[in-house]
Amino acid sequence: MPNDLPRAIVTGCSSGIGRAVAERLLTDGWQVVGVQRGTAGIAHPAFSERLCDLGEGDAIERLVAELGTPQAVVHASGVLRPGALGKLDPADGALMWRLHVDAATRLANALLPRMAAAGKGRMVLVGSRVSGGMPGRSQYAASKAALIALARSWAAEVAANGVTVNVVSPAATDTAMLADPARAATQPKLPPMGRLIRPDEVAALVAYLVSEIAAPITGQDIQVCGGSSLPR
Predict the structure, then answer these.
(1) How confident is residue 3, by pLDDT bands cut at 50, 70 and 90?
(2) Per-residue pLDDT tens for 69-122?
(3) Neighbouring-strand partners of residue 168
(4) 22 torsion bin: left (phi>0), alpha (psi -120 to 50), beta (else)
(5) Cα 205 from Cα 169, distance rounded (Å)
(6) Closest C-alpha to 68, from 11, 119, 7
(7) Residue of 30, 47, 140, 154 marked active site
(8) Beta strands in 17-162, from DSSP E residues, in sequence order
(9) Minimal CA–CA distance to 199: which of 5, 13, 18?
(10) Which of 4, 58, 88, 131 is the most buried (most CB within 10 A)?
């Protein structure tokens, strides 16, 4: 792997937004370390991967101890387990909390101080438009809403050190998550633009936020919504 390129750690590179982010950053001249449970299958000289179940806190702790100081961290791993009142599954809620919130917390706790000490760095958390609340998505929404509060809090702690922390929140995106049998009874709602968001469109915003020119942007939740947030 080339050693003179900026290095980004990207979780969830095996599919969807995480894979699109990894591919975009590689195109933009980054080294990318993919962190996910299964192999990503990305063939690029600047890509390497570390297999890790991000739902297991101890595994994350062992991993981050070996990762050094990256210039960017993108936490894109995620899972959706819908559930209406009366049918909420505590195990599903715990899974989403571990993967979305606890994993982000452990990554930030280890890596943001290192980036702050280096005087530069970027962290982007992939959230969701659902964070504002949606019927049948309460547990998922809660875990994604927590990312916004965490990002704003962390951003305030490291802003003076040249480090930014932001959330990118897409509307329904065309990923394998939509084909998950667990959500077969709850089809996504198309945004006003008339189609699903593409993963590469989300990745383009992430690529900007981890760039040097995005230094003034921190503590923000930026929606990629195809018009879903517009008043109607």
Answers:
(1) low
(2) 999 999 999 999 999 999 999 999 999 999 999 999 999 999 999 999 999 999
(3) 126, 222
(4) alpha
(5) 10
(6) 7
(7) 140
(8) 31-36, 47-51, 72-75, 121-126
(9) 18
(10) 131
Q: Which residues, in sequence order, are CB contacts of 211 under 8 Å at separation 6+?
A: 28, 122
Counting beta carbons within 10 angstroms of the beta carbon of residue 226, is it exposed (0 to 12), middle (13 to 18) or buried (19 or more)?
buried
Contacts of 84 (CB under 8 A, 6+ apart): 135, 136
The sign one gets for the Cα dihedral 75, 80, 83, 84 is positive
What is the pTM assigned to this prediction?
0.91
CB of 52 closer than 8 Å to CB of 73: no
Q: Do residues 109 and 103 make contact, with C-beta atoms less than 8 angstroms apart?
A: no
Q: How many CB atoms lie within 10 A of CB 57?
A: 14
Show the tokens assigned to 196.
């699903």
Taking 60 as the threshold, does the pLDDT of residue 168 lie above it? yes
Active-site annotation holds for 140: yes
Closest CA to 214 of 106, 76, 72: 72
Beta pairing partners, 98:
none
Other CB atoms within 10 A of residue 228 CB = 18
Flag whether pLDDT at 26 surpasses 80: yes
Distances (CA, A) of 153 to 7, 111, 125, 162, 181: 24, 15, 13, 15, 35
How far apart, in whole angstroms, are the C-alpha atoms of residue 44 and residue 40?
A: 11
Q: What is the DSSP letter of 137?
A: B
